[in-house]
């Protein structure tokens, strides 16, 4: 029987009525989970020897540096930092550090290992320190709900998926009252540092907190960690966000299964929508891993200014050509944010966002008069279900919730209509049956791959180093990821250097600039060189489940290897 780890029932401070034991059932682990708990993780060599921090040159911003400097007068321009081996002495030992950690935003495999890395670093290099976990995301900071993370508490979560160690949330600390609550909590706990584990918005929030604390001469320093399965939080110094590797391998296993089904039945076209609201990295990576017949990359659609009809015609053309070869089946991948990449739809959504930011939708449809003529025509052209989904309540950032727009079903409807037309014209004689899938939450909480488990552990260690060294407003960054772990580099990148301004809720706000798929980049070029062959020939690859030992267990995703100039697997 698999081991069961029963939680101790420690009180969650801030709400005496709640205990950790009552927040979830005893964690019963499978044999694989139990084995993973004790899996030892390697560290970059620089973290196992005496080291020192070296500052780089002053930084700027990803865009609108003048605006970013006004918004972050205390953080802007500070240098990034890197660890180098120190041959003349040992790492200074600071004791009794008090550090808080918070998980922010959606789940991503490996988050628990970031916390484990912070905990282990403090135990090793800052003995006597205390690590607090804020429960439920940033709301836990504002409401001062936390739990002290001890060795026994942390142990069952090592190398495990999910965020249930302390749970997460999507709250933002942005109003004067909320900043005051955060100040009160950090003062009450006498925090020396706070680590924010999150995506682009969460790390923007981390920088705002660092700026606020510094402006008040508070001692609490803030460090971020790059988390998002979407893969769009990265730059030269931060080559990858954690969770992307694991999520793509989970999705690729599922796509491989669907491919086998398509080939076995010989009569279905599987339309698979994948996570990725703002960028198509997941879709591109899964295509490189599995070789589907058709893959739509949102950034290419936007660059070529393709319309919905253009995208539909491309899919239909491939289906017709495959029918001539006797193939009435196939697999088609699309990113969940596809509809937001089509220029005509993007303009419609931008107008809808602006309208919904200032008024509610009336049943009489008077709000439609505020749409431009072209946008109104497009809105009326879309299927009724898509119209309704476009009008759903906006996300916390004021954007349309593209995850709730069933793009794959819309495409199936449009393909059916066009194929029926071609059938009547005599230019199509095949049979079409569309099956829709959305692979989303399935990839967010899996057991992290060896890569993500190790990468996250190093990120957590690095965050501990940065805090102990007095740094704030940086994001923990681990580089040289195509090399063996021992050769990875460790440091911190100035958060303001990754920022631009963006319009949200009708106002311009600072945000970390999303990293989109680069059409001139190596990953897309590799895909582009192969897609015609994949379209007509069934070059399907079924990667199978994630491996932890043996063949494929230490394989790094195609995107990272190609971007770093390493040999693609």
Describe the structure.
By secondary structure, the chain is of the alpha/beta class. 38% of the residues lie in helices and 15% in strands. The protein contains 19 helices and 17 strands. The chain has helices spanning 20-23, 31-37, 65-71, 111-125, 138-142, 151-154, 176-188, 200-215, 244-265, 281-290, 298-303, 308-324, 343-356, 373-381, 384-390, 407-425, 450-468, 522-536, 558-563, and strands at 4-5, 27-28, 51-55, 81-85, 98-103, 130-134, 146-148, 193-198, 221-226, 269-274, 294-295, 330-335, 434-439, 474-479, 489-494, 499-504, 507-512. The strands form 4 sheets. Strands 3-4-15-14-9-8-5-6-7 form a 9-stranded mixed sheet, sandwiched between helices. It has a 4-stranded parallel sheet with strand order 11-12-10-13, sandwiched between helices. Strands 1-2 form a two-stranded antiparallel sheet. β5 (98-103), α4 (111-125) and β6 (130-134) form a beta-alpha-beta unit. α4 (111-125) crosses α17, α12 crosses α16 and α13 (343-356) crosses α14 (373-381). Mean pLDDT is 91; it is low at 1-9 and 16-26.
Q: What's the overall geometry? A: globular
Mean pLDDT: 91
For the secondary structure, the number of strands is 17
SS summary, helix count? 19
Please give a handful of descriptors for the protein shown.
globular, disordered N terminus, 569 residues, alpha/beta
Q: Could you give a short description of this structure?
A:
38% of the residues lie in helices and 15% in strands. It contains 19 helices and 17 strands.
